[in-house]
């Protein structure tokens, strides 16, 4: 195969992804680093003895053999299901008040439905596994040719070939590629979600092994780390041709990443199957349960307690009555033949009979426990998640990404959020950098105005309708410029300044420095240029948006980087002496890459004139201290500009350079090359040390400022969320000035808000250096303590509300504030403030703050972020929201819900969260109501029948109650009900307070529904018995018997609970009508069909409707009167509540109806709506709610 003649050996001096330090190569062979791979010899006896895993992968939860036992175990972890299983088992004994089949059938239906759902989901995963395991791969065989095989057949040590756009079937050691120097491009979206390509490179010693002949002779041994989940490090050695070579992640191609822009690669399988890094990372996220679900478990325990109580009461009275049947040798109730009975009714052993009756009662009153509750809730939550996924108002056109509910367990939790903890970059902002300003030779360039500057101008009230700024040119003369006159045409470039654009920089006094400044931007990077053959346009493949913005800015200002070769960079620029464009080539000697610890990057190049240059860019905190004495000419002005840029919310980098002498460079290069060749544990430290020695005595050129714009709709979204009473904290790694001004721009901080700032910057650094570490910690801790106490005192002594305060704290102070002795006072201060911003926060600090708020306040927390550094915060919060943005998909993969833009959060919470909370809360309460109504009619009947254990209803009536006659309406409630429309939810964010205050599922509300159920059962039983017992029921004058009484009571129960549902629903659809009235109709249909069965099967239901109930006027009249009487208490309560103590949604509904009436009376309804006044009662209620909210937040 032909190979491109490009060598990249010296392009990357550091490893491609040096994000984490790990124990290095000196540990190979020790514990944790014991894997041995025989390259191209998978059948080597030593390799066979290692018995490494195969490449077969399974992501399923179950197998064919363990599905039934494991799935049953999962189902019976729920206490309610265990109870029904025990009841079903005991129902085969004489203790059961009904037949075993009537109890077993509903349990089988419920458990079977849940298991079927699990099986379907697992089968989908199984099909994905089958597809992946049977993909084709090319393996080098014993006949020295490549043959196709399936992924699952690969073994450790196999030599394989992967072609362009194919996925890697295992973790592979890169031997060579279609490029002569062994480089290849890899897309790792399936691993970390990042879309930018990663550059991998083989060892130079193996890069020439590319054809079948050379592959035949390739035999080597890899000794490396054991399988682990760390995606960003690899430790190992290659023993080849008698020499040992250190390996890094640079030479490892991970499973499920894809080969891009490279025709083919050769490699050796190192890790297979579940030993690969991607599979090691395939762990389930932390299990989260909503607060409603946890409270529901406690309510179930209350129902169990009620069940035991009424069973005990029944058995007590039964034992008392049975014991009194035998008195002085005479039988009191002789008509039930107590002298000829079993042990269950023996008056001579009344205590034993009472014990058996207690067990019977536990089964009889088991209908208090809703058997279908869990499966119904699961089904409803899945449908709710589908509605969230399909909401077009949360679909982002630009990225083609809809909202996604990654779990359905937390839908209702979205409606109870008290505190939002948000990342900034990529979450509130776009993470799409635009070059907007720069400072060169102490002169500020760039006429653009950022969103933050506009917010600051509004805050200081010194900006007019049109925005103008005064810029100082090199001569010191000010000029007024219209800052709104420019338009942006190029992605990543939003710069406007006629002094240096269109080649005018050559007329500037410091044109030489300006030239060097943009040369550094055009050369100091790792960007790869790609030319569109059709249009001739150049596109840049960059590792970060910042780098792309710098290269684009240099191009737009006349310094176009257009080609990168094996050891050179080419750019096209204007020769200011000749005034023409010239191509300049620079020999690329070394690249010292950027890392989070170095905070800078440098390149060493040689110009066409033979000058050795070190070009560097980095954070001001590390760059300014590396300037030479002669290179600080305009340090003061540059530092001032950097501070102003930070205040404007811009990200800054310092640009510098230095000339290198030949002797200095040669000595340094020897040390640097030796450091790279080292295989000791100090290898990275040696490389860093060598880099430090050359990156010094720099000459300052200036600074860049790029803007990360706020996402669309962020200020409006924050304003809505705060209007709902939700507290918002921002946890960011940015500087304090940047974070504060972004806070003002997004309306997190408001004009007139007093800021409480906690920082340790005020400590005297020189004094700090004189103290030992322990003394510094003590002084810093005390300083933070004093600032926290002063902040609390300031709020308490202020006449204003807490909503007038904002808290700002930096990362160093946060370390001390999160200590055990200060965390309570810090949280007390933070919760008294309307907004909190934590600056310079590390990922660990973000997670600790989230945990502190969640645990100490007991309120529901939500974390939202877009990057890998936000994962721990998302998993720590009650609800984690991932933004599918520029930084990849790691946050999304660790989240519970995913959205494309922060602005969609208001709809997710205020609409879907509000609806889901209401639906689930009402659904559960209604479940308890209908089961208590039904269960207590059994208790009243048993009391009426001397606690004999006789059920009031036919066995199959009771079995089908929860499954067929009352289940569908409550599911429709959980899926479709709306108290108000989505538009009104967003227009009236105060509605969200219902969920925050948990007004629909607190104990008074739950007990109220339970009492309603008990009351309904009392009305149904006593009204029914008094209405039909003793009266002529049939046409021939016969009175109602046991079967007729049971049917009549059951009919009243079915009508009452379904009509109660109709009263509770706020938003009717045809589905609700079908389910509610269909359930009632199905009861009559069931009676007809079941009544036609033989008496041995239908027992008391034989022809009971057709022959007895349907022809009787008393049956229908009793049903009507009893149902109306049962519903009257709830109807009266709701009428009173709506008029005198309305809930927020009641007020909104009345407001909407009043406006509709006003519109109908108006000729022009739009004019009427604008001019209409709300009724005084409604206005007063809205005002009262707003005052309550302010009082709660203060």
Automatic annotation (TrEMBL):
Source organism superkingdom: Eukaryota
Residue intervals of the P-type ATPase N-terminal domain: 37-100
Xref: Pfam families: Cation_ATPase, PhoLip_ATPase_C, PhoLip_ATPase_N
Membrane-spanning segments: 79-97, 103-120, 299-318, 354-375, 920-941, 956-976, 1006-1030, 1042-1063, 1075-1093, 1113-1133
Gene Ontology cellular-component annotations: endoplasmic reticulum; plasma membrane
Enzyme type, top EC level: translocase
SUPFAM superfamilies for this protein: Calcium ATPase, transduction domain A (SSF81653), Calcium ATPase, transmembrane domain M (SSF81665), HAD-like (SSF56784), Metal cation-transporting ATPase, ATP-binding domain N (SSF81660)
Entry's localization field: Membrane
Keyword terms: ATP-binding, Magnesium, Membrane, Metal-binding, Nucleotide-binding, Translocase, Transmembrane, Transmembrane helix
Binding annotation for Mg(2+): 423, 425, 866, 870
Chain ranges of the P-type ATPase C-terminal domain: 892-1142
GO MF entries: ATP binding; ATP hydrolysis activity; flippase activity; magnesium ion binding
Essential cofactor(s): Mg(2+)
EC number: 7.6.2.1
PANTHER family the UniProt entry points to: PHOSPHOLIPID-TRANSPORTING ATPASE 8-RELATED (PTHR24092:SF165), PROBABLE PHOSPHOLIPID-TRANSPORTING ATPASE (PTHR24092)
Name of the protein in question: Phospholipid-transporting ATPase
Organism: Trapa incisa
Species classification: Eukaryota, Viridiplantae, Streptophyta, Embryophyta, Tracheophyta
